[in-house]
């Protein structure tokens, strides 16, 4: 079998070169897949499927040519545009299996399409380890991280497409990397993660079964093993997110917010400011990886309106979202400002009304006094009445002035108190 390999490779090269030179290859697609890796002695299925871009050639008949040596062919089947072979191998290694397709009536013509797949054969058991976390009786599958304090299920998934191990009995030896060992007959364990950190979980799988020996035809025990390793990262779940900062700001003002996160770093934080609150799932957001538990962000709004800051925090174990609504006012204009304006206006009007009534009163008095004057030789009174009227004018003027000043001061104070919190947040 071994001396056949170089000639096979040569042939494969030849086929590939021939195929490369063929312009017809563009019109066809040839997909080839295998269901490996497999254990030595087990079977692998290799599937080839021809597709064509121009339907006018679909009426032709095709022939599939396989090169699989040194693997042993178990079965071959061919339909119009598909071909499937089952092969087995006695030795571990990586084996290229190639296929090329020719027109059925023209074997020596250039192939219309060709492709190659690589089959992995190992002397060990094949499969993989998966980690799932049990939360509230729900199974949540994770990459390799789990939150501490929760129950984690580690399972072994055997990859045996040809049911080679159907009569085998398995024993699983688990090593959790923290001095805890366990031997089970089931392909999974429940592991109570109690300490935070990284660890490596090792599993040794032993499969044993009885078979009739090929040499002396006697019953013999066959054993195969497999070693599997998975990294388990125990993290703390993200428990909370607090947004500290104002819920109000003005256009073109720098709004600063602090995000405080309770969870083990590194944390992947993603934030987005939009007109409405949205769950950030696959949504474009500003992604930052933070090492600490605090993140400061500042934002300047160019338009007034209602906004929402959506925040998502992940640490590989858990994901948490929160929202913070923000009201953005136009620059310097605020309903409170209008209220102040009204107050000022009303004060002015009140002052004016007071002034006019007071003035009309004094004028009436003046007339009476002026009537008196005609019979009095003293012209002092006229002066005094004038001064009185002047006083009234001054008084009302000062009253008016005072009230308007007061209004102005009041409005200023109100404005100040209104601006105060904003100023506080812009620090
Ligand atoms: C060869 O097969 C692979 C796997 O099916 C496929 O992705 C690839 O497109 C194929 N190549 C050609 C030239 O058809
Ligand atoms: C399909 O093949 C026919 C015959 O070979 C040819 O006349 C036609 O132009 C081809 N169509 C396309 C879309 O390539
Ligand atoms: C070939 O493989 C397929 C799929 O793995 C299986 O259904 C079929 O029984 C196999 N054929 C033989 C002869 O073992
Ligand atoms: C583990 O095995 C399952 C089943 O064979 C397969 O679907 C999955 O992709 C494998 N995962 C990895 C990481 O190899
Ligand atoms: C996991 O361990 C913690 C502390 O060691 C214990 O409080 C908890 O009950 C355990 N959970 C299970 C399901 O064994
Ligand atoms: C755990 O492993 C991950 C990646 O495998 C690494 O980023 C992280 O820093 C490790 N943590 C500790 C505490 O070693
Ligand atoms: C907003 O303020 C923060 C700190 O308070 C500063 O780092 C940032 O550069 C400011 N941004 C703008 C656009 O002024
Ligand atoms: C976060 O910590 C890792 C290692 O602890 C370091 O390599 C990385 O530079 C740090 N990133 C920042 C933004 O501080
Ligand atoms: C966030 O801002 C506060 C004060 O506003 C400061 O004390 C803190 O160090 C800042 N944090 C970061 C991560 O920049």
Automatic annotation (TrEMBL):
InterPro entries reported in the protein's UniProt record: PKAT, PKAT_KLD, PKD_dom, PKD_dom_sf
Pfam families (alphabetical): PKAT_KLD
Keyword flag Transferase: no
Keywords: Glycoprotein, Membrane, Signal, Transmembrane, Transmembrane helix
Stretches assigned to the PKD domain: 172-205
Top-rank lineage group of the source organism: Eukaryota
Record's keyword annotation contains Transferase: no
Transmembrane region(s): 336-355
Signal peptide residues on this chain, from the entry's feature table: 1-21
Gene Ontology CC, one term: plasma membrane
Record PANTHER family: MELANOCYTE PROTEIN PMEL 17-RELATED (PTHR11861), TRANSMEMBRANE PROTEIN 130 (PTHR11861:SF10)
Protein known as: Transmembrane protein 130
């Amino acid at each position: 079998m071994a001396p056949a390999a170089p000639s096979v490779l040569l042939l494969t090269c030849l086929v590939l070169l021939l195929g490369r030179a063929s312009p017809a290859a563009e019109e066809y697609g040839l997909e080839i897949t295998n269901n490996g890796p497999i254990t030595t002695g087990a079977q692998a299925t290799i599937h080839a499927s021809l597709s064509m871009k121009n339907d006018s050639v679909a009426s032709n008949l095709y022939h599939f040519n396989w090169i699989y040596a040194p693997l042993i062919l178990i079965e071959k089947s061919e339909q119009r545009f598909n071909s499937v072979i089952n092969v087995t191998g006695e030795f571990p290694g990586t084996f290229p299996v190639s296929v090329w397709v020719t027109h059925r009536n023209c074997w020596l013509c250039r192939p219309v399409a060709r492709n190659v797949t690589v089959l992995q054969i190992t002397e060990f058991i094949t499969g993989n380890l998966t980690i799932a976390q049990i939360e509230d009786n729900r199974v949540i599958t994770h990459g390799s991280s789990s939150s501490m304090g929760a129950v984690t299920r580690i399972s072994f998934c055997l990859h045996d497409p040809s049911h080679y191990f159907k009569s085998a009995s398995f024993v699983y030896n688990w090593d959790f990397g923290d001095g805890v060992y366990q031997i089970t007959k089931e392909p999974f364990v429940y592991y109570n993660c109690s300490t935070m950190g990284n660890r490596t979980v090792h599993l040794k799988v032993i499969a044993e079964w009885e078979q009739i020996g090929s040499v002396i035809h006697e019953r013999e025990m066959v054993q195969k093993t497999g070693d599997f390793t998975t990294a388990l990262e125990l993290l703390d779940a993200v428990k909370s997110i607090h947004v500290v900062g104002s819920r109000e700001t003005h256009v073109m003002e720098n709004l600063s917010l602090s995000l405080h996160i309770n969870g083990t770093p590194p944390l992947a934080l993603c934030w987005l400011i939009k007109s409405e609150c949205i769950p950030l799932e696959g949504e474009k957001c500003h992604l930052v990886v933070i090492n600490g538990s605090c993140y400061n962000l500042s934002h300047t709004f160019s338009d007034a309106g209602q906004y929402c800051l959506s925040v998502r925090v992940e640490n590989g174990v858990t994901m948490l979202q929160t929202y913070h609504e923000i009201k953005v006012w136009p620059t310097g204009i605020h309903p409170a400002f209008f209220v102040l304006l009204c107050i000022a206006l009303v004060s002015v009007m009140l002052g004016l009304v007071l002034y006019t009534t007071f003035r009309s009163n004094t004028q009436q008095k003046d007339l009476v006094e002026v009537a008196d004057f005609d019979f009095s030789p003293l012209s002092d009174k006229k002066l005094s009445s004038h001064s009185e009227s002047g006083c009234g004018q001054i008084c009302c003027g000062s009253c008016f002035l005072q009230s308007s000043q007061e209004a102005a001061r009041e409005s200023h104070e109100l404005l100040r108190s209104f601006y105060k919190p904003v100023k506080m947040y812009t620090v």
